[in-house]
């Protein structure tokens, strides 16, 4: 039973306040979790409750913490901590809006995950095992950022995420070695071009580039320089995050001062797909452009995973509808988009029911919280996406994957869905 539930203000990787919830059971077991925060959010996802005003740029979470203290704690204290469905149903009842306007998605996700961690502690199991006591056969394959852009790098380039997926690495340990080699090689290529580069929000190189395509060129060259075969040993994965640069049905690459109709834009993406070893594309069209998302899926799904993030917002109904309409073939799952563990799990199950691949993902604002690694392994996701192989809030997750793999005695990575 939940004996105490306590919220506190802690900090995320952008130096912004966020919500941590800690639960103590009657038996003295504890679990806690920290809410992450997105920067390029889908309009239909659970939204964080922020104080507004001027303190801490309006990002403070004292109102959300008050909701934890005055509404959530009284409702949950006394409930069985292992009954995740009932706990999450209570959160749903207290705030039925999918966007979690009343309680705040930051309050609900921290609470829901804290309950899950407490339940695993009660059962004296690591969380991944608690989620999948029948046994895990594969480990989620890493999808790792090398170059950041878009909303995560002051829009220096328009695309948000230039990532790699290792394909021939046999284990998570080898996969991260391959990634680190290319991260270093791409860093050397940037350094050779001049000093103007930094670190993007998810830890990748912040490009000093004039055109989006140059990032694809550098990434492909970096794979070669590191001694790997592009498209065979490592494939490129893009998070285009097109909602960020679509206005009124046209797509505007601000960094290049070029605008495109939907058809022209998808032709550009198609050219990139021809020219570079791209094996996954997230949000190629805007969340407001279902026609574009269906067209992208019809055109590219044979060669690349078509991943819905802003388009699906980890919503089981949206996933089912998209599958019916032929938009996307892979769901990005973010617990804080759904607001609770149960709803995110339902989204994962809806993707599986549609025959889709799944990617369990962190956010651009993160912390040392490693829940996402356990969910990816426990739910049997195909891939896990947590940003670059730098910065503590990212390496916390990768390092947890290494520990889990060791506990499991070394597991093969989940097969890449298209091969
Ligand atoms: P966000 O971006 O966490 O800033 O929303 C991550 C993503 O788009 O996948
Ligand atoms: Zn995304």
From TrEMBL:
Location (main, coarse): cytoplasm
Q: Where is Mg(2+) bound in this sequence?
A: 239, 282, 309
- Which residues are listed for (2R)-2-phosphoglycerate binding in this entry? 160, 334, 363-364, 385
Q: Which family does it belong to?
A: Belongs to the enolase family.
State the GO CC annotations: cell surface; extracellular region; phosphopyruvate hydratase complex
Q: Which GO terms describe its molecular function?
A: magnesium ion binding; phosphopyruvate hydratase activity
Q: Which gene encodes it?
A: eno
Say which species the protein is native to.
Verminephrobacter eiseniae (strain EF01-2)
Q: Which SUPFAM superfamilies match?
A: Enolase C-terminal domain-like, Enolase N-terminal domain-like
**Annotated catalysed reactions:** (2R)-2-phosphoglycerate = phosphoenolpyruvate + H2O
Q: What are its cofactors? A: Mg(2+)
- Keywords in UniProt for this one? Cytoplasm, Glycolysis, Lyase, Magnesium, Metal-binding, Pyruvate, Secreted
State the name under which the record lists this protein: Enolase
Known EC number: 4.2.1.11
């Amino acid at each position: 039973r939940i004996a105490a539930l306590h919220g506190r203000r802690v900090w995320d990787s952008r130096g912004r306040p966020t919500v941590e919830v800690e639960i103590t059971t009657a038996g003295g077991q504890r679990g806690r979790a920290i809410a992450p925060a997105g920067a390029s959010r889908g309009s239909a996802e659970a939204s964080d409750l922020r104080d507004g005003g001027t303190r801490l740029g309006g990002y403070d979470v004292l109102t959300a913490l008050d909701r934890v203290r005055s509404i959530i704690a009284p409702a949950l204290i006394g409930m069985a901590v292992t009954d995740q469905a009932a706990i999450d149903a209570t959160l749903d009842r207290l705030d039925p809006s999918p966007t979690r306007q009343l309680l705040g998605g930051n309050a609900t996700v921290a609470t829901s995950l804290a309950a899950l961690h407490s339940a695993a502690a009660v059962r004296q199991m690591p969380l991944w095992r608690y989620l999948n006591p029948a046994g895990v056969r594969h480990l989620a394959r890493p999808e790792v950022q090398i170059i950041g852009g878009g909303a995560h790098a002051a829009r220096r380039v328009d695309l948000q995420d230039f990532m790699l997926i290792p394909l021939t690495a046999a284990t998570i340990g080898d996969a991260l070695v391959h990634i680190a080699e290319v991260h270093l090689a791409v860093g050397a290529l940037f350094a050779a071009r001049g000093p103007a580069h930094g670190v993007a929000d998810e830890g990748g190189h912040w490009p000093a580039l004039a055109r989006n395509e140059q990032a694809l060129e550098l990434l492909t060259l970096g794979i070669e320089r590191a001694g790997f075969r592009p498209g065979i040993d490592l494939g490129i994965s893009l998070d285009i995050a097109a909602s960020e640069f679509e206005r009124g049905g046209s797509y505007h690459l601000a960094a290049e001062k070029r605008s495109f109709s939907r058809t022209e834009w998808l032709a550009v993406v198609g050219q990139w797909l021809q020219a570079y070893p791209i094996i996954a594309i997230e949000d190629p069209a805007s969340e407001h452009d279902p026609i574009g998302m269906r067209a992208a899926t019809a055109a590219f799904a044979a060669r690349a995973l078509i991943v819905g993030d802003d388009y699906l917002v980890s919503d089981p109904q949206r996933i089912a509808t998209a599958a019916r309409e032929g938009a996307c073939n892979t769901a990005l799952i973010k617990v804080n988009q759904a607001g609770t563990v149960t709803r995110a799990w339902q989204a994962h199950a809806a993707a599986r029911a549609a025959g889709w691949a799944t990617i369990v993902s962190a956010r651009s604002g993160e912390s040392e919280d490693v829940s996402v690694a356990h969910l990816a392994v426990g739910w049997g996701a195909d891939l896990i996406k947590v940003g670059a192989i730098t910065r503590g809030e990212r390496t916390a997750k990768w390092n947890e994957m290494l520990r889990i793999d060791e506990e499991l005695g070394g597991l093969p990575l989940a097969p890449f869905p298209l091969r």
